Amino acid sequence: MPEDLADVYRTTYRALVRFLYRKVWDADRAEDLAQEAFARALVHKPENARAWLFIVAANMARDEARRALREQRHLRLLTSEPAATPAEPDEALDAEARQARVRWALEQLTPRDREVLLLWDSGTSYDDIAAQTGLARSAIGTTLARARRRLVDVHAKGSEDEHVARG
Amino acid sequence: MSHADDGTLHAYLDGELSALEAVRLEAHLSECADCRRRLAEERGLVTRAGELLAAAVPPERAAPPLHQLRRPRPGRRARFPLAWAATLVLTVAVAWFVRLPHQPGPRTRLQRAERSIPANPPRPDSAAPAEEKPSLDRDEAAPARLTPTVQTPPPAPPRLGEVRAPDAMGDLAAARPGAPPGASVATLDTASRGNAAVASRSAAPARSQSQDLSASPQPYPGTISLADARTLLGTDPVAVPGLRVLSIRRARLLGYSPVVVVEQVVDSSVIITVVHRRPAVSLPAAGVSEGAAPALERRAETFADSLGGLPRGLEVDVVGPLPPDSLSRLRAALQPLIRR
Question: What global pTM score does this model have?
Answer without folding.
Answer: 0.46
